[in-house]
Amino acid sequence: xxxxxxxxxxxxxxxxxxxxxxxxxxxxxxxxxxxxxxxxxxxxxxxxxxxxxxxxxxxxxxxxxxxxxxxxxxxxxxxxxxxxxxxxxxxxxxxxxxxxxxxxxxxxxxxxxxxxxxxxxxxxxxxxxxxxxxxxxxx
Length: 139
Fold this sequence. Notes:
Layout: E1 10-19, E2 22-28, E3 37-38, E4 40-43, H1 50-62, E5 65-79, E6 84-97, E7 108-115, H2 125-138
Parallel strand pairs: 1-6
Antiparallel strand pairs: 1-2, 1-4, 2-3, 2-7, 5-6
């Protein structure tokens, strides 16, 4: 059968969560892109809509309750170092409740709000594409 992202291109999803002009980012502990800062997200499960996957992943990784979201952009990444290939649908929201918490310390080491003009480095390809789309929407 094989593994998505490794044996064939995987389908990912992500959510750019915004509050007061700041973006929620978390630092990854595992491949792909271990040590990189990323928006919340992950893989889309079989027979799951990508928007539902983005909401699920965001809630699992941050503890927030997501009320609504809108499509933001598509990101495609080939990560040679990890031998992975992902096509991801990225969404955006500022409609949520709760405060972010580090709910998956086995997968993420840090979580917090960052101004779009003062982001931690390195940023994952996924996060870079989301930030570029967010900045384009503001222009």
